[in-house]
Structures are given as C-alpha cells and as structure tokens.
Amino acid sequence: MMKKLLLRIIILLGPMSVWGTPVFDNFFTGDVLRFDYLLSGNQTSATVLQCEIKKEKIWSGSHNSLIDNLKYGTYRFQVYDNKSGELIFSKGFSPVFQEWQSTAEAKLINKAFYQVIRFPFPRKGVLLKIDKRNYNGQFSEIYSSTIDPDNYFIINENPKNIPFEKIQFSGEPTNKIDIAILAEGYTDDEMGKFMEDARRLTDSLFAVVPFSKMKDYFNVYALKTPSMESGTDIPGEHIYKNTLYNSTFYTFDISRYLTTSDMKTIHDMAAVVPYDQLIILVNSTRYGGGGFYNFVNVCTSDHNLSPKVFVHEFGHGFAGLGDEYYTSEVAYNDYYNLKVEPWEPNLTTMVNFASKWKELVDPKTPVPTPRDGKYASKVGAFEGGGYLTKGIYSPMDNCRMKSNEAPDFCPVCQKAIREVILENTK
Ligand SMILES: [Zn+2]
C-alpha cells in the first residue's frame, strides 16, 4: 500500500530526483560526454583551457551512483542541470599535474598537461565546474562553463578500430568496474606477449584481498595498441623509444617513476571498450610505475616485482589510497599540510583521526603505535607515511601501499577498496 502510494506521488510530481539522488534517465543518455582540456599553471596557479568536446559510446559507470560520496582526490568536477541548478554528477580525481605542482620545477616555470574527463552524455544543457583543493584541503573553483548537448561542434566520431580481448567478463558494464589494459611499447609482433603479460598481471590483482573476493565486480579488457618501437623512454640513460603513449621513466627526475602525459591518445584508443579505469602496461624489464586516482595507472610488465607494483598502483588509481612509505626518494616538497586531515583514506595527520580508522584500533593498542615489531599485526597509528617520517601516520606497520614485502593491503586499505568497489557498482 505504501509502495503504491509512493509510486503515485512520484508519478504525480514527476520528480527528476528521488530522495536527492538524480534519476539517470531523466538527465542522461547512455552515451559519454568527453571534455578534453589543458591544465596549466605553476606551483600555485591552475588554469583550465578547453580543447574539444566529444560524444562517445557506452557510459560504463553506475546509473545509481552519480554523485561522488567518497570525496577523494585533489581535484573534482561537478555537472549541474542548467535549468534546475541541481547537481547531477560529480567525480574526484588526482592528475599528474597536481603532483608536478609540488616539485621544485613548478616554482620556476609554467607547464600544461593534457586532461580528459568523462561523464554520461546529458539530455539538456549542463554547467560543468572543475574544482581544485587548496592547501587547507578545501575545494575552490578553477573553471566553469555551460555545455549544450545539441551543439553540432561536439565531435561524434566512431572510435578507432582497435583489436581487443576480454580477459574477464562478469556482466553489464554499468554494474561492474571496467578495466581497460592498453599495450604500450609493444610492437605488432609482440601482441602475443602483451596478452600473456596482461593476463598474468590481472591474475596478480585478483590474488590479493579484497580483489580476490570481489572478482565478479570487474570486467577486464586488453587493447592491442601497437607501438613503433619496443620498450619506453629512460631519459636518465639517454634511451628514447617511439611508443604510442609516450610513456617515460624519470618523471619529475625520479628514476623509477613511470608515467605518460599523452591522455588524448590513451582515451582515443580506449574508446573502443567501456572503461572506468585505465592501465597502461609498459613492455619493460625495469622496476617502476605510477598511479593517479581516477586518472591513469602505469606499470611495467617484466620486472620480478611487476605483479606487486601493478597492485600498488591500482590502489592509487582505483581507490585513492595514499603512499604509506616515507623513506624512498620523491620529488615533492610540502605535499601534505600537517594542519589538515588528508583526503586519502589510509593516512592521517591526527587532526581528525575519528574520521579515519580510529574505530578499527583495539583499545589495548597504543596510539601513536610504536614500530617495534610488537604491534606488527595490529591496526594502529604508526608514525611515518605520505613521504614523511614525522607528522603523518599509517594504519599498519606494513601494507601493500608501503612496501613490496607486504603480502597484503592493510585492513584499512582493504576496507577502503571494498567501499570504492561497492560505491561504483550500485
Ligand atoms: Zn594500507
């Protein structure tokens, strides 16, 4: 009876939203709106310069989780219905640009990084806003612009005809996390090797808790995108290879840091499959990788630690986990403000520990928790993390987000990953 009454009220009022949640079909088609832009600036400034807008096939994200409740990421974008002003889509992300902003180089020069954001294609006019977190952790707007979906300058082309294989298929893309693995530094003749590498590393991801228990939430596609040459750039050794996504070691002059800035080509190629996460698999025996929340994951294929790195970087790119290590060389200065709680779910400055994993700490475990081996199997608050030995605390003495020796993610990281999986497959 209540249900019928409720249904009648809904039909009578014809709401665009139910209990504050936008109704997908009222606002969006099943296609994708892709907004390409340059993010430019220096240590303190960030400016958005629009490049092009595209219509692409198959929105692969959830229809029921349009507003980002997790609020992870150093940047976010929000989409508002023009007419009602209602927020109808939002998503957090952390671009390479944001890390570059904390390097010494960003104090000296301006640079621009190519970016792509994607959201379901709107039926009517929308307002797109892009926000950046400032040093005190609050978001402030750096861009806003209206988009008319009927504008005939929105590019509506077919994607490139890239051959791909489904490594794993669990069901409809809108109900699953769709991972696209793209071949980088593999020549045409090496595509057999790429498929073997992609399968092997996918297996390594689904061997680790909680991914092992939630494999059915994921689809995985491998895209056979050939490069002219094998390998990748190693500028510190004067090695340069002509590869499709222009990946490179020595990002920010850190030898192991492997990234790609060619987001345009990556998204152009990936458009042939439904995708929520991008993994660039680089054909190399060197140690290294990089992972950026809701942006891109990069990893090499053939170092003996590649399976570990693959999982670690996906922890960044998929779940927004922070680095729990604090002894390795990084290029950042003042990356974290110790006076505010970082947004990463697995790091705390103790400014608001209750908002993090305090509830998971046994009352018998001291906080801060000494790193003397006695509490190695316990959740606590261990000083050191986020590239700092002092002032930032990690949930466990060791974790996949800290070292390659850790067999698993710590319970706090596991919980965070589970939440991201569930949030995106509602
Ligand atoms: Zn952890």
Write the layout of secondary structure elements.
Layout: H1 2-13, E1 17-18, E2 21-22, H2 24-27, E3 28-41, E4 46-56, E5 75-81, E6 87-93, H3 96-100, E7 111-122, E8 126-133, E9 139-147, E10 164-168, E11 177-184, H4 191-205, E12 218-223, H5 263-270, E13 277-282, E14 289-292, E15 296-300, H6 306-319, E16 382-385, E17 388-394, H7 411-424
Helix pairs in contact: 4-6
Zinc ion is lined by residues 324, 346, 395-396, 399, 401, 409-410, 412-413.
Describe this structure in words.
- There is one protein chain.
- Among the domains are: 22-147, Peptidase M64, N-terminal domain (Immunoglobulin-like, Sandwich), CATH 2.60.40.3250; 164-319, Collagenase (Catalytic Domain).
- The chain is of the alpha+beta class and 426 residues long.
- The protein contains seven helices and 17 strands.
- The strands form five sheets. The chain has a six-stranded mixed sheet, with helices on both faces. A four-stranded antiparallel sheet has the order 6-5-8-9, with no helix packed on it.
- Helix 4 (191-205) crosses helix 6 (306-319).
- The structure holds zinc ion.
- Zinc ion (ZN) is lined by residues 324, 346, 395-396, 399, 401, 409-410, 412-413.
